[in-house]
Design a protein that fits this description.
Elements (H helix, E strand, L loop, with lengths): L1 E7 L7 H12 L3 E7 L3 H11 L3 E4 L4 H6 L3 E2 L1 H6 L4 E5 L2 E5 L2 H11 L8 E5 L3 H12 L3 E5 L3 H11 L2 E3 L4 H6 L3 E4 L18 E4 L6 H9 L2 E3 L1 H17 L6 H6 L17 E5 L6 H12 L3 E3 H9 L3 H8 L1 H13 L9 E3 L8 H10 E7 L2 H7 L13 H19 L2 E4 L4 H12 L1
Parallel strand pairs: 1-2, 1-3, 4-6, 7-8, 7-10, 8-9, 10-11, 11-12, 13-15, 13-16, 14-15, 16-17
Antiparallel strand pairs: 3-5, 5-6
Helix pairs in contact: 5-6, 5-10, 12-19, 13-15, 14-15, 17-18
Length: 434
Amino acid sequence: MEIYAVTGRPISFSLSPQIYNLVFSRMRYPAVYTRLAAETAAEALQMAREIGLRGLNVTAPFKEDMARLMDRLDSAAGQLQAVNTVLLRKGKALGFNTDPAGVQGGFSYHKIKLQGENALVIGAGGAGRAAALALLEAGARVTLVNRTTSRARAAAEELGCTYCPLAKLPEVLSRSRIIVSAVSGNLDLLRPKWLDSGHILLDADYRDSTLAGHAREKRCKFIPGTDWLLFQALAALKIFTGHEAAPHRIRLSLSRPYPGSAVGKTASDLSFSLIGMMGAGKSTIGKKLGAALALPFLDTDRAVEQTVGQTIPSLFRDQGERAFRRLESQIIGRMRREPRKMVYALGGGAVGLESNRKIMKTRSRVIWLWANPRTLLSRVHKGGRPLLEGKDQLGKLRRILARRLISYAAASDLIVNADTPPAKIIRKILHEMC
């Protein structure tokens, strides 16, 4: 079983897990996909290697920095000096850029020919350069516009297209049929009065598109950013697995809401569940997160101890691990009936049962606190961990982690680096999830 993830800052909004997990399921491909939170591209790559990920998708603002960390770049990544797909094989990090394929796929899906068309790309960052490259390769005549003219000029010179100052945007737009917006949705550089029904618009931002409203108002053809996302993901899928997938049914899934809505809740209504190995800091972080959000906190290990009136080590000795897991599952089962939004710290092995994972996923946003085995062992209180009793504790911990790794990935909505101080972990969770 393989693990893949998407990384960027922030990353909790990404729809990539929705795409890939659906594709993996339909292909019956043995893999799971989640999100990896990091402060830098270097941190994301290090975590991916430590965890044993087979690949990463990369979004803003890590694409350019990730390119500098690769052992090898494909043609598009080399030309753009930006990476959105990383393949990790035999100790090497191979960098690709599938954004141009995403742009071309979006237009092709809507049966729009680009050959000989005048095209305007707004934004000269990584997404804008990728869009310009895709349009040029398809035979369009491309003009780049950016708030900073010098950046548009540099990108145009690199790619072999033209550019113009932002002040001339209305003039260039009037003679361009194809328009690609590669700026954030809250940066509205277009005015509806400049548009007409002959324009075809593609918006890179699938979260907050003001351009979609302009297109409806002026009855323009509009291609949503989710199509760009989908087709670049399908190109990355082939890199990851060697397999192709049809876009039709997957495209429909992108309109579905956050998985928690299956029980009538939105993301903002959901609780938080912290998972991870012993020593990851789930209890410490859970208490602090609960305090920061003014939410009740429940530690499932402590709840089990209160239920049976004895410590977990003594419960293991008297009744064995199976009895403990049964009680643990009963505590987790209460999450389904809990009306309040809460913060939960779950035992390290709680993810082992699919029924537990299903409850976590539908009732909470699941955060996997990752720390490398040596860090974990340094934090574990000696004598208080029944599964580590005896010699070679590090070896035992590594083997336990290896058995649980796929379950952690399958349960998680977000991986957070727990090899850092608690205050930094809390800030990261709040930044991503709140």
